[in-house]
Specification:
177 residues; alpha+beta; Alpha-Beta Plaits; two-stranded antiparallel ribbon
C-alpha cells in the first residue's frame, strides 16, 4: 500500500449553485482510488477578496489523505474544476468569477515552489475565507513555513483588519443544507 499524505484543500465558488457544486466536487474527489476524504468544514459566505465581483463566494476547506504527489494531485483538481465548467479566461489578469476553484493549501508539511505550484499556498495568512474554515476543522494545524497554528494566524489576521493594516473581510459561517 502506498504511503498516504494529508492534504488541505480550499474549495470556492461564486457562480451557479455554489453549495451543490462544492458538495459534489468534494464527493467526486472521494471517488478517486488514491484519495480518502477526512473532513469538510462548514461553508462560509464571503465577499470577494482581491477582485471585483457582484457575486458572493461560498468557501470551505477539506482535509483528505492521498497517495498522489502534490504534482499529481494538482492536475486532478484542475480536471474536477473543468468537469464543473471552470473556464479560466486566457489573458485575463487576476482573479475571476468561477463555478469552482480547488486549491492545495497544504500537502503534509511539504514546502515547494515551482511554476505550477507553491506550498503552502502563498496567501493563507491574508485570507479569512481560508483561515476561518481551517480553524474550524484543524485549529492546531501548524504552517510549515512559520510554525504558526491556523488559530493563531486567524487571530493575527483579525488584528491586522482591526488596525486597518488590511481591508476588512466580511465572512459568515453557514450550513450545507
Amino acid at each position: 500500500m502506498s504511503k498516504r499524505t494529508r492534504a488541505w484543500i480550499g474549495l470556492g465558488s461564486n457562480l451557479g449553485d455554489s453549495r451543490t457544486i462544492l458538495q459534489q466536487a468534494w464527493q467526486g474527489l472521494g471517488q478517486e482510488k488514491a484519495i480518502i476524504l477526512i473532513t469538510l468544514s462548514s461553508p462560509y459566505v464571503t465577499e470577494p477578496v482581491g477582485m471585483e465581483s457582484e457575486h458572493l463566494f461560498l468557501n470551505a476547506i477539506g482535509i483528505l489523505e492521498t497517495s498522489l504527489t502534490p504534482e499529481s494531485l494538482l492536475p486532478l483538481l484542475q480536471q474536477v474544476e473543468l468537469g464543473f465548467g471552470r473556464n479560466k479566461k486566457t489573458g485575463a489578469d487576476g482573479y475571476q468569477d468561477r463555478l469552482l476553484d480547488l486549491d492545495i493549501l497544504y500537502y503534509g508539511d511539504q514546502v515547494l515552489s515551482s511554476s505550477d505550484l507553491n506550498l503552502p499556498h502563498p496567501h493563507i495568512a491574508d485570507r479569512l475565507f481560508v483561515l476561518a474554515p481551517l480553524t474550524e476543522i484543524d485549529p492546531d494545524h501548524s504552517d510549515p513555513l512559520t510554525g504558526k497554528t491556523a488559530e493563531s494566524m486567524q487571530h493575527e489576521l483579525l488584528q491586522r483588519m482591526k488596525s486597518g493594516e488590511i481591508a476588512f473581510q466580511e465572512i459568515n459561517r453557514d450550513i450545507w443544507f
